[in-house]
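re: the backbone from monday

yeah here it is again, tokenized this time
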């Protein structure tokens, strides 16, 4: 990490295919000595991560475009353009989904960094196995656990 100001254009950053959408790591934890990471998340209609928890990470989402439904153990919230959603440390189960009729875009800040490395590792696993017909869920679960995250069944909220 340097003391120099860094500028990142909208075409820079590492692009990944995650949770049915495209994530772009704008600032990685490697660039901040693990202090934080900033990730832009493009979420197509019907896409979003499965319910999950991570007790050691705090996430703050700012909706840049569109609308997403965030669910937690405390209920649900429809976040529209300009809204901010903060998921505190502590491991609350949460997820979001694009239930609207157009693509949504979020800016996610993760404190401390680490989920950015999780996304990179999952993306590499998916790319390496895209031509193979195999269930990647057990491998993704192991990678999740490596980064202190727990994944739940996609139908978790319906149970």
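seq for it, each position gets an aa:
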């Amino acid at each position: 990490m340097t003391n120099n100001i860094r500028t990142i254009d909208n075409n820079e950053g590492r692009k990944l295919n995650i949770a049915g959408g495209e994530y772009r790591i704008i600032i990685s934890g490697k660039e901040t000595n693990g202090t934080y990471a900033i990730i832009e998340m493009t979420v197509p209609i019907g896409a979003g991560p499965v319910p999950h928890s991570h007790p050691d990470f705090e996430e703050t989402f700012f909706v840049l475009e569109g609308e997403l439904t965030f669910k937690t153990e405390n209920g649900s919230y429809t976040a529209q353009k300009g809204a901010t959603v903060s998921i505190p440390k502590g491991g609350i189960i949460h997820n979001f989904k694009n239930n609207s009729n157009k693509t949504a875009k979020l800016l996610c800040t993760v404190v401390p960094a680490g989920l950015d490395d999780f996304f990179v590792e999952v993306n590499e696993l998916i790319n390496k196995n895209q031509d193979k017909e195999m269930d990647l869920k057990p491998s993704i679960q192991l990678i999740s656990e490596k980064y202190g995250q727990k994944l739940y069944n996609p139908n978790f909220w319906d149970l």
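The longest strand covers residues 58-65. The radius of gyration is 15 Å.
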